[in-house]
Amino acid sequence: DAGVIQSPRHEVTEMGQEVTLRCKPISGHNSLFWYRQTMMRGLELLIYFNNNVPIDDSGMPEDRFSAKMPNASFSTLKIQPSEPRDSAVYFCASSYAGKEQFFGPGTRLTVL
Amino acid sequence: GQQLNQSPQSMFIQEGEDVSMNCTSSSIFNTWLWYKQEPGEGPVLLIALYKAGELTSNGRLTAQFGITRKDSFLNISASIPSDVGIYFCAGHYTDKLIFGTGTRLQVFP
Fold first, then answer.
1. To probe the interface with A, which of B3, B65, B96, B101 has the most A CB atoms within 10 Å?
2. Which of B72, B77, B70 is nearest to B55 (CA)?
3. Which one of A59, A60, A82, A96 has the fewest beta carbons within 10 angstroms of its own beta carbon?
4. Is the pLDDT score of A22 beyond 70?
5. Which residues of A touch B6 (CB under 8 A)?
6. Helix (H, G, I), strand (E, B), or coil: what is residue B78?
């Protein structure tokens, strides 16, 4: 079975541009999580969904960040406008019943 | 955000040596998970622990869920070069995982 799929794997953009990160969770999983990883702050939970509904977005740093899950097999994380301090690795993870989370390979974002 | 205290921060060991790392928290967790992350990849689940006192093995890896539910440890026996990576503990809190700060393991042949 395919694991969590994320695209793109790498994204380089200029400050002010819109960035969209994509995630396909493992089929049958009903929870989806977006994380950000940096050297300074480690792994931070940004937002998570249960059954496509956003449950907790308290980790989203600013209004520039938004996430959607239009169906059980797809989610996006959007940053508009992007800033250099948004540079990080963004991970998507999915789980069934919320405990064992399985991570995707991540998107390495660089904002110049 | 919340983080677990994980130690040591890094380890440099010789191939064949055993490794031990642990995680402590001021909060009680009902589930402990251990992940390994290699460069350029996402964390990969190694072991999940569901009961206080539980001892679980996965090959050369052994993990235990502390009796107090506030700690967990991971042991790696007879380390090999491919054990290199960052190991994270995670405690399950409501619907979320709280991650430790990671233990960076280097293995020298």
1. B96
2. B72
3. A96
4. yes
5. none
6. coil
Instruction: Pick the closest to residue B36 from B4, B83, B101, B106 (CA basis).
Output: B83
> Do the Cβ atoms of A98 and A55 come closer than 8 Å?
no
Task: Determine the pLDDT at residue B50.
Answer: 93
pLDDT category of residue B2 using cuts at 50, 70 and 90: low
pLDDT in tens, B7-21: 999 999 999 999 999
Contacts of B8-12 spanning 24+ positions with Cβ under 8 A: B8/B103, B9/B101, B9/B102, B9/B103, B9/B104, B10/B103, B10/B104, B10/B105, B10/B106, B11/B103, B11/B104, B11/B105, B11/B106, B12/B106, B12/B108
Exposure string over B17-42, b if 16+ CB within 10 A, otherwise e: eebebbbbbeeebebbbbbbbeeeeb
The pair phi, psi for residue A86, each rounded to 5°, is -80, -5
